[in-house]
């Protein structure tokens, strides 16, 4: 019981995800020859950075009882725009390229934030609209042309193969380390900065947050801006990873990201979740996608079906199982506090 009181319900989901990841690996190891190898996990981790970075931004928005469905279009638009810039000006420095990607993403996120936070338009409607608008902007910008790897500078083409550390045939890519650093930074923001704590308060009870005088509109707006900024950065990572960018770049990414967030334990109704859980959810989604591509028994249509099923199961478990765990956890903590208060009062009483 003591361990139960120390472990928050959200951490139960994260621990469960670790076991599920291990079970998925064990299953595919029996189905795919040579699956348990360093190269396999290098390939899987290399595909993780884009989903993980976008999932961090999506988590900020979902915590406020909103959702950003435009992230896939933002990633594609930024990847194409920055790729075109680099193709026309190969001498553009890497920091400038990243800054431009983040700036464009922030501007697109700000449009979402203005519509949702100040225009009072439901987030699912607003971002579904901007998803289409940003995609059309990409189509118009591209003129049906493709950014190809032979037009990009050498430093960008070398980035995907850059390793932070190697263990035999297992390479930990530098971009994966960057994605993990983003997750850690925003995990600290959520739990140690006032802004992060306000997001939990807004999502848990918007009316109480409003009565308490919290700047709800401003905080929701900032959440969308940060989501756009991280989607912009992910657009740069997308360009680095694939090189060849077409008008369908990032299409369908929003489904993967939402699946990663809710599977990772972020409550779709707001108020609870963590970046660590979102990262584990992204790892599970990417592991399944990469493994299903190599599994002869699975068709291409199975992947989307599995993502949809995972979203439904995650939302259902949040509503039923985790709600009960949260209630039991709160009752246990309350009993502990009452016992502690009674003990302190007894010790403070005269003649005790």
Summarize the model shown.
With 352 residues, this protein is mainly α.
Q: How would you characterize this protein structure?
A:
By secondary structure, this protein is an all-alpha fold. It has a single domain (2-337), classed as ABC transporter involved in vitamin B12 uptake, BtuC. The chain is 75% helix and 3% strand. It has helices at residues 2-6, 9-31, 38-46, 48-62, 71-88, 94-118, 123-142, 154-158, 174-192, 194-204, 206-211, 216-242, 253-263, 275-294, 300-348, and strands at 163-167, 170-173. It has a two-stranded antiparallel sheet with strand order 1-2. Strand 1 (163-167) and strand 2 form a beta hairpin. It is globular and about 85 Å long. It starts with a helix and ends with a helix. 40% of the residues are buried. The mean pLDDT is 84.
In the CATH hierarchy, the third-tier topology is known as: ABC transporter involved in vitamin B12 uptake, BtuC
- Which of globular, elongated, flat, extended, rod-shaped describes the shape? globular
Query: Which value, in Å, is the CA radius of gyration?
Result: 22 Å
What separation lies between the terminal Cα atoms? 29 Å
**SSE ordering:** HHHHHHHHEEHHHHHHH
- Tally of structural domains: 1
What is the CATH architecture descriptor?
Orthogonal Bundle
Q: Classify the beta-strand content into a percent band.
A: under 5%
């Amino acid at each position: 019981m003591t361990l139960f009181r120390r472990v928050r319900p959200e951490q139960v989901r994260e621990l469960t995800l670790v076991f599920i990841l291990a079970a998925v690996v064990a299953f595919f190891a029996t189905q795919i020859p040579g699956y348990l190898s360093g190269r396999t996990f290098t390939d899987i981790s290399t595909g993780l950075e884009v989903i993980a970075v976008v999932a961090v931004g999506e988590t900020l928005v979902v915590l406020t009882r909103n959702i950003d469905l435009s992230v896939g279009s933002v990633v594609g638009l930024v990847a194409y725009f920055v790729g075109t810039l680099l193709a026309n000006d190969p001498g553009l420095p890497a920091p400038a390229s990243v800054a431009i990607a983040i700036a464009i993403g922030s501007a697109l996120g700000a449009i979402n934030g203005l519509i949702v936070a100040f225009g009072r338009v439901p987030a699912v409607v607003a971002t579904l609209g901007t998803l289409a608008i940003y995609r059309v902007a990409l189509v118009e910008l591209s003129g049906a042309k493709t950014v190809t790897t032979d037009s990009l500078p050498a430093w960008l083409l070398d980035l995907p193969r850059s390793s932070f550390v190697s263990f035999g045939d297992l390479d930990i890519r530098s971009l994966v380390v960057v994605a993990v650093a983003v997750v850690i930074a925003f995990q600290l923001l959520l739990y140690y900065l006032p802004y992060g704590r306000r997001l939990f308060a807004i999502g848990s009870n918007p009316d109480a947050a409003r009565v308490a005088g919290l700047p709800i509109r401003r905080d929701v707006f900032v959440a969308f801006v940060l989501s756009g900024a991280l989607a912009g950065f992910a657009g740069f990572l997308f360009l680095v990873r694939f090189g060849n960018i077409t008008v369908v770049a990032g299409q369908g990414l929003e489904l993967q990201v939402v699946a990663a967030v809710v599977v990772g334990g972020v409550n779709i109704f707001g108020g609870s979740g963590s970046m660590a859980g979102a990262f584990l959810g992204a790892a599970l989604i990417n592991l399944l996608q990469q493994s299903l591509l190599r599994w002869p028994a699975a068709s291409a249509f199975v992947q989307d079906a599995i993502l949809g099923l995972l979203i439904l199961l995650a939302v259902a478990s949040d509503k039923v199982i985790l709600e009960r765990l949260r209630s039991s956890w709160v009752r246990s903590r309350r009993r502990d506090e009452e016992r502690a208060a009674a003990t302190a009062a007894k010790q403070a009483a005269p003649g005790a």
